[in-house]
Amino acid sequence: MSPHRPAGARTRRAGAAPYLFLAPAMVLFALFTALPIGYTAYLSLRRTKVSGLGLGKGARKEVFVGLANYATALGDGELWAGWLRVLGYGALVLVVMLGLALLFALLLDTLHVRFARFSRAAIFLPYAVPGVAASLLWGFLYLPGVSPVNDALSALGARVDLLGAGTVTFSMANVAVWGGVGFNMLVLYTTLRAVPREYYEAARIDGASETQIALRIKVPIVTPAIILTTVFSIIATVQVFTEPMTLRPLTNTISTTWSPLMKVYRDAFVTGDLYSAAATAVVIAAISVVLSFGFLRVVRDRAFGEGR
Amino acid sequence: MTRANATAPAAGTARPGRRRAYGAAPTAVLLLGALYCLFPVAWVLVAATKSRAELFTTSTLLPGTGLLANLADLAAYRDGVFWLWMLNTVLYAGVGALLSTAVSAVSGYALAKFRFPGRGLAFNLLLGGVLVPAVVLAVPQYLLLSKAGLAGTYWSVLLPQILSPYGIYLARVYAAAAIPDALLEAARIDGATEGRLALNVALPLMLPAMVTIFLFQFVAIWTNFLLPFIMLGDDHRFPMTVGLYTMLAAGANQPSLYNLIITGTLLSLIPLVALFLTMQRYWRTDLSSGSVKN
């Protein structure tokens, strides 16, 4: 900090102060973001080499293997199957969750809605429920015997195994939709509330219906926010882990490698193959990075686009 | 899913005719959404009152008579480890969110109110952290913390969750709008040091943003599963999420544990739901749009 700069420096060059203020964040970033990323990249290029019978000192050596782990990861049929499952699951979650979030936000923003505060709080409530607890709640609701959902279904004559091979993806997507719709609704709703009401009055005077106002004025206004929430949701779905892990004990239709992230976990901590885990993790990251540049662009243009 | 899909077409077809008629459809759709979101919570409230025998035999929507027995069983489970999980969760989330808020606030202030070489780079790096999948970080974080002898300790769960890209982003946006440059300049002319300035002028002005950052990070840590699941081996250090998961994994083959898991899930919801309801006005995602009106 340099409080005694000569008075000539009118627009203060900042001196050391901003660097000191940023130091804690940068140290944490170096230790818990940059270093782990570097270490993952390093591990992904290595593998244990066993010589002889693999017994005794020096029989196991870590060697540099180039991109061999990536070749294995990309050639792994189970991993691709995992991507496909997550793709289907993710598409379902994104469309339904964000569609409902937008619908609820638009409805909350219309003129004559009763119980709006109650509905808003109730729909936001699942945000406060941890993913594990949400999966447990729904997991029990999917179980025959304890579940009113199954009671109702069988009363209607439909015997559906909600955790069966054909339905488990939908059941899992429902958990994610339930947990995420409220938060996304709130983001979109707050964006809508910031719009001056006169816009809508003018449109009404011109004879526009509420639906037309919603579709032609409000939706375009919240489009940047929708893009933002979409990117965040994509990143979250690519990494889906908690829901399948928690539902797994309740059914035998979810394998230990159901999602790519579950395979990373299994490789790293169950089968002890850190190197494959690292390579797979980098592949998952690469897929997110493609999205990340788009995201940064959106954030910068939107929040800091005022010519800095 | 079925319920969710059923609501979707309703709004599209809502007829925009007379104002009064228009109000019914949106209200109904929103109430359906509220019902969908409250339903599992209401169910667990009922299910937690059922005794072991009642859980699988009585009607699923009728309360039972076993709540007190369930609570007693839960308290006795592995010598009361459940309460320890609760305490651990409060510790991780409380201390972690506090540190996170402090770091976010000073970072956001520096990024918003100073011009210095490397500012853009620092912001992009810190914000870019939001895009790095947790898995790319969690596994090597575990390995590196193991080397430092910290894996399995409270630190291993606390430290990696202090840096919050979203918190820094919010703090920067808020500081840019809420702290007038003229005020800082005046204080500097009066001879205030940068440290005093930050502590006595800037940070107090950022208080509303700090409350919001604290809440978001508190919830993020409270609900986190992957990191503590990877870091911790000793169930005496588990947070609630990992504890409930291990309980389910152990109880999958013995439905006698289901009562405990259901009761435990209910109890684990209470603190966060209470925080959520009492602090509702601070749940703002519009710190930028709400205040950047010049």
Automatic annotation (TrEMBL), chain A:
GO cellular component terms listed in the entry, alphabetical order: plasma membrane
Record Gene3D superfamilies: MetI-like (1.10.3720.10)
Top-level taxon in the UniProt lineage: Bacteria
GO biological process, one term: transmembrane transport
Record key words, sorted: Cell membrane, Membrane, Transmembrane, Transmembrane helix, Transport
Transmembrane portions of the chain: 20-42, 89-109, 121-143, 163-189, 221-241, 274-299
Subcellular location: Cell membrane
A Pfam family this chain is assigned to: BPD_transp_1
Domain named ABC transmembrane type-1: residues: 83-295
InterPro entries: MetI-like (IPR000515), MetI-like_sf (IPR035906), UgpAE/MalFG_permease (IPR050809)
Membrane-topology annotation of the record: Multi-pass membrane protein
Similarity annotation: Belongs to the binding-protein-dependent transport system permease family.
Entry protein name: ABC transporter permease
Provenance organism: Sphaerisporangium melleum
Automatic annotation (TrEMBL), chain B:
InterPro entries reported for this sequence: MetI-like (IPR000515), MetI-like_sf (IPR035906)
GO process annotations (BP): transmembrane transport
Subcellular compartments: Cell membrane
UniProt-listed Pfam families: BPD_transp_1
UniProt record similarity statement: Belongs to the binding-protein-dependent transport system permease family.
SUPFAM superfamilies: MetI-like (SSF161098)
Domain ABC transmembrane type-1: 86-279
GO cellular component entries: plasma membrane
Coiled coil: none
Main subcellular location: membrane
Transmembrane segments: 21-46, 90-111, 123-143, 163-184, 205-231, 257-277
Keyword annotations: Cell membrane, Membrane, Transmembrane, Transmembrane helix, Transport
The name this protein goes by in its record: Sugar ABC transporter permease
